[in-house]
Specification:
The protein is built from ten helices and 18 strands. The chain has 365 residues and is an alpha+beta fold. The longest helix has 31 residues, at 169-199. It folds into two domains: 2-111 and 294-364, P-loop containing nucleotide triphosphate hydrolases (Rossmann fold, 3-Layer(aba) Sandwich), CATH 3.40.50.300; 127-255, RecF/RecN/SMC, N-terminal domain (Glutathione S-transferase Yfyf (Class Pi), Chain A, domain 2, Up-down Bundle). The chain has a seven-stranded mixed β-sheet with strand order 8-14-15-3-16-17-18, sandwiched between helices. It has a six-stranded antiparallel β-sheet with strand order 2-1-4-5-6-7. The protein has a three-stranded antiparallel β-sheet with strand order 9-12-13. A hairpin with a 4-residue loop joins strand 4 (69-75) and strand 5. The chain is globular and about 65 Å long.
C-alpha cells in the first residue's frame, strides 16, 4: 500500500502531497477540473504503466512548468518509488529506493488496476474497446501478453503492406507463419485469463469468441490450431477495396453475461452494467493478489456514479474483502460518508487543501 505520494508539476498540480495514514480507502473529492483524476493517473504510473489516460508525457507536464514532472511514493513497507520525466526526454524514468530502475521493475513493487468513466460504455462499444480492456488486464499478470498484442498488430500491418505491393509468396509465407504462431499464443492467453477471472466471479461470467480462440476451445492442440490458421491465411491473400480482409485474434471479442438477470451485460441498465464492471475489477484484484501475493491498488474514477446507496455500500464492503488499497474519486464527499477505514482528501484547483481520516478531526496538509 502507499503511505504517501508527492506530485510535482503533474497536470495542474504544482506541488502536492497526500498522506494515507495507512488507510485502505483513499477518497479524493472536489469539483470538476480540480485535479482528482490527475492524482489517480499519477498513482497508476507507479506500476510502470503509461497511466490510466495513456497520454503523451509532454501533455502530463504542468502548463507553465519546466516541461517535466515527477511522482514519488513511499510504500507502507518503506520502499521508495519514483517516476519522472524531464523536458527533452523521450520517455519516463524510474527509481526504486533511490537507485535507477526500469519501468518494468516497478510492477514487482506495486500492482494497479483501474476503472474510469471511459469504460462505462464498454459493453455497448466496439469489440476493439473490449479487446483493449481485457488485454490490458491480462497483461498485468503475463508480461509477454502486451508484447504479443503489439507483435500481432505489427505483423498484420506488414502483411497488408506486402499484399498491396505485390510481394512474392515466399515473403508472405514467412509472415503468415509468424502471424499464426503469435495468434495461437495470444488466443490461448486470453482463454486462460478469462477462466482464471471467472473463478472469482459469481454474478457474471466472461467469454472469449474468435476464430483461433474457438479452435482451442473446441479442444484442438496449439499445433493443430496453428496449422489450421496458417492454411486459412494462405487462402486469404486478396485485397478488397485496397484493404486486407482477414479474420483472427485481432478481431476477437470478449463477452460478459449477467447470471443474476440471465442477460448479456450489454442488454442491462447503465447501473447494472457499472455493477458488472466493478465486479470484474474486484475479481481481477483478487486474482492479482492470489497470483502475486501482493496487495493491489484499485483506482476508481467516479465509480459511485450510477450506483444507489445500497450498491455503494455493497461495493465498499466487497472492496474491503478484496484486500486492496482503494483510491476513489467523486464530486461529493457525503456520498462516501459510510466508507470504513478511509482518508478523505479535498482537492481544489490542483491543491490538496485538507485531509480528514475516518473517526479523526480535520488535519491540515
Amino acid at each position: 500500500m502507499i503511505n504517501s505520494i508527492t506530485l510535482t508539476n503533474f497536470r495542474n498540480h504544482k506541488l502536492c502531497r497526500i498522506q494515507t495514514y495507512g488507510r485502505r480507502n483513499v477518497i479524493i473529492t472536489g469539483p470538476n477540473g480540480a485535479g482528482k483524476t490527475a492524482v489517480l493517473e499519477a498513482v497508476s504510473m507507479l506500476s510502470g504503466d503509461r497511466g490510466l489516460r495513456g497520454a503523451p508525457m509532454t501533455d502530463i507536464a504542468r502548463f507553465g512548468g519546466d516541461g517535466g514532472f515527477s511522482v514519488y511514493a513511499l510504500l507502507c513497507d518503506d520502499t521508495e518509488l519514483s517516476v519522472f520525466f524531464s523536458s527533452g526526454d523521450t520517455n519516463r524514468r524510474a527509481r526504486i529506493d533511490g537507485d535507477t530502475a526500469t519501468l518494468g521493475d516497478l510492477s514487482a513493487c506495486l500492482r494497479t488496476v483501474w476503472l474510469t468513466p471511459r469504460e462505462d460504455r464498454l459493453f455497448v462499444d466496439s469489440a476493439a474497446e473490449r479487446r483493449a480492456f481485457f488485454d490490458r488486464l491480462a497483461a498485468s499478470f503475463d508480461s509477454a501478453h502486451a508484447g504479443r498484442v503489439a507483435r500481432l498488430s505489427k505483423l498484420m500491418s506488414e502483411r497488408a503492406f506486402a499484399l498491396k505491393n505485390g510481394r512474392d509468396s515466399r515473403w508472405l509465407d514467412a509472415l503468415d507463419a509468424q502471424i499464426a504462431g503469435v495468434a495461437v499464443a495470444l488466443a490461448h492467453a486470453r482463454i486462460v485469463y478469462a477462466g482464471e477471472l471467472n473463478y472469482f466471479l459469481t454474478d457474471c461470467a466472461v467469454t472469449v469468441s474468435g476464430m483461433v480462440e474457438q479452435m482451442l476451445i473446441d479442444g484442438k492442440t496449439a499445433a493443430m490450431s496453428e496449422r489450421e490458421y496458417l492454411e486459412y491465411l494462405h487462402g486469404a491473400r486478396e485485397l478488397v477495396g485496397d484493404k486486407m480482409v482477414v479474420d483472427g485474434p485481432h478481431k476477437s471479442d470478449f463477452g460478459v453475461f449477467n447470471k443474476v438477470l440471465n442477460l448479456p451485460a450489454a442488454l442491462t441498465s447503465t447501473g447494472q452494467q457499472k455493477t458488472v464492471l466493478l465486479n470484474l475489477i474486484l475479481a481481477h484484484a483478487k486474482l492479482m493478489h492470489t497470483k502475486t501475493n501482493r496487495r493491489p491498488l484499485i483506482l476508481l474514477d467516479e465509480a459511485a456514479a450510477h450506483l444507489d446507496a445500497n450498491a455503494r455500500a455493497r461495493l465498499f464492503r466487497d472492496l474491503g474483502a478484496a484486500d486492496a488499497q482503494v483510491w476513489a474519486t467523486g464530486l461529493d464527499a457525503n456520498v462516501f460518508a459510510d466508507v470504513p477505514d478511509a482518508v478523505f482528501v479535498a482537492c481544489n484547483d490542483g491543491e490538496i487543501n485538507n485531509i480528514l481520516c475516518s473517526g479523526q478531526k480535520n488535519e491540515q496538509d
